[in-house]
Specification:
With 481 residues, the protein is an all-alpha fold. The chain is 85% helix and 0% strand.
Length: 481
């Protein structure tokens, strides 16, 4: 079977982004739906136990991958003929790593009580299964093919939702809610293995050739160290909240955390197709690299600012969706939403740094940010609880953005005059939107306000020249295809 892969042009980036964005929209809607059901069904205490178990296993999960997925995508994008050999080597590395990570989780779980221990065990099964699925999807991304990953992302979340509805209907409790995760992970792995065998013709036999393993480890360790630091940075606040403030605090914190995490599907979808292109352009076309990166910054700004301003304006109405028991989450949500802009804009910066062989610099920046984050959490959580964790998220994301901004300017001299005007126009349109929402806030329901806000922002941005006709045409054409 002969596979024909296209060079990643701008239109191909838009097409892949459209596939993945659409899938992630559906996926995040589904996952946010069952999170809302969990919040209402469990209450803050049990919700805190559930997400403490997930946060703990998510930290250990990165010990299985250690940056191998990033290397696999980058190297396959640069030379697709090596895909079979590369994946076999990755598989050979991940088998012993998966066993070691699971044993580590098992021993850590012994320090917890019965229900929490049970939740950790169940989450660890999903951790191991997902680690192998991630590697295969990373390989397919190197082929510039995100269609199958897009379908799977929707299917997995749908299965979890169905399982959740059954558990809640029968009132089986929090442990059975956790069962849905390893079940969905198992079917996802079967799907991605079938694609590897029959569609992409990849070898599923692990390889332990010393030369290839040494090369892969040499390439992966900077990515791996960064991934460990990033995973700690993402989930350590929930673990520290559980230890320093209890399960109720974790449950309250999960509301703003899940909201901001759900919204990250937008830059994640864009970067999934952008990263292989950046990697190729770094080697072959520096001018196109600069243009593509500037567009990525502008798109990230246009998307993030109205979401940030809109949710800050409607924070109290958002929290009501989860029930009155989560009223304490309003302030943390507003604080964390300020960080959303910096998170979105950092995505293309971090990807540029990795794609241009500066992953060690990314690792250094993340290490600095993690240190500051942990220090602030230890200081602020005992003093002001969940609000302290939210302030830590904001400060650390501003720091990471600032460090990456400096590095990105060293790699390519991207032009401020191509970025700042878009920032100004998007901010003006967002503030106009906020004014309209505030004027109507006490007269209309939440969903009507969201719809009106989106229309006002779109018209404002278009009127200010922040979006051009050719940009809209490109997006519409990619979706139509």
């Amino acid at each position: 079977m002969t596979l024909n892969y296209m060079t990643p042009k701008v239109t191909n980036i838009a097409k892949n982004t459209s596939y993945f964005t659409l899938a992630l929209i559906i996926q995040k809607v589904i996952s946010f739906t069952y999170f809302t059901l969990y919040a209402r069904y469990l209450g803050p205490e049990d919700l805190g136990k559930y997400y403490f178990a997930i946060s703990l296993t998510m930290i250990f999960a990165i010990l299985i991958d250690l940056g191998l997925a990033n290397v696999l995508t980058r190297e396959v994008a640069r030379g697709e003929k090596e895909a079979k050999s590369l994946f076999s080597t990755v598989l050979g590395l991940k088998l012993p790593l998966a066993l070691l990570a699971w044993l580590a989780v098992f021993f850590v779980a012994q320090n917890n009580q019965g229900l929490v221990k049970q939740l950790i065990y169940l989450a660890s099964i999903s951790m191991v299964l997902d680690s192998f699925s991630i590697s295969l999807y990373a390989c397919y991304r190197g082929f510039h093919n995100l269609k199958y990953e897009s379908l799977a992302s929707v299917g997995v979340q749908t299965l979890v939702l169905l399982m959740s509805l059954i558990v809640i209907k029968l009132d089986l409790g929090v442990a059975w809610l956790m069962v849905g995760l390893p079940l969905a992970s198992f079917f996802n792995l079967l799907y991605v293995l079938a694609l590897a065998k029959f569609k992409f013709r990849l070898s599923l036999k692990p390889s332990w050739r010393k030369t290839e393993i040494k090369t892969m480890v040499t390439l992966a360790w900077p990515f791996g160290l960064y991934a460990v630091l990033q995973r700690l940075y993402t989930y350590i606040d929930s673990v520290l909240l559980y230890r320093l403030a209890g399960d109720w605090a974790v449950g309250i914190y999960q509301v703003p955390f899940k909201i901001i995490n759900a919204l990250q599907f937008l830059p994640m979808a864009f970067i999934a197709s952008l990263y292989p292109a950046l990697s190729l352009y770094w080697r072959q076309n520096k001018d196109q690299l600069m243009v593509t990166f500037e567009r990525a910054l502008n798109y990230s700004t246009i998307i993030s600012l109205p979401i940030t301003v809109g949710i800050i304006t409607l924070a109290d109405r958002v929290i009501v969706l989860f029930s009155k028991g989560y009223a304490s989450a309003v302030w943390p949500l507003q604080i964390i939403m300020v960080a959303l802009f910096f998170i979105f804009v950092h995505f293309p910066m971090g990807s540029l740094i990795n794609a241009c062989d500066r992953q060690k610099t990314n690792t250094r920046n993340m290490a600095i940010t993690l240190f500051v984050s942990v220090l602030l959490n230890f200081i602020l959580i005992p003093a002001i609880g969940v609000v302290g964790a939210a302030i830590t998220v904001l400060v650390s994301n501003i720091l990471l953005f600032s460090l990456s901004l400096q590095v990105s300017r060293q790699i390519i001299a991207w032009r401020w005059h191509k970025v700042l005007p878009t920032l100004g126009k998007a901010l003006c349109a967002s503030l106009i939107m906020a004014g309209v929402i505030l004027a109507l806030k006490h007269h209309l329901n939440f969903f009507t306000l969201v719809a009106i806000g989106a229309v006002v922002y779109a018209l404002g941005l278009y009127g200010l020249g922040g979006v051009k006709k050719e940009d809209l045409g490109s997006i519409i054409t990619s979706f139509r295809r």
